[in-house]
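Table 4 source record.
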Amino acid sequence: QLQASGGGLVQAGDSLRLSCTTSGLTFRSYSMAWFRQAPGKEREFVAAIRYNRDGIAYGDSVKGRFAISRDNAKNTVNLQMNSLKPEDTAVYYCAAGRSVILSSIRRDSAYDYWGQGTLVTVSS
């Protein structure tokens, strides 16, 4: 089970930190990712970190503003979002994948489990 939290309403330029806590899986063996979906749009890759931290990837629209990290002791993956823009408004989902190779780290099909999503709204 994946439980995402930390969403909310912020103004452009603000920061938010999302967290995703897992249970029922061996967290250290799973690669973790964040995706988002804005109203009327397709799901978009945001960031991912491999289970052993040998690969971190970001979507082009968030590169340089967002940072993903994981805490294996707490079974948690975090997404630090800085310099938020109105176009970052979306429901953010965390995902866990058991066998995610580097070449597929950005694909939603690579992930086995998904959280329920947390809404981030950025006002202009």
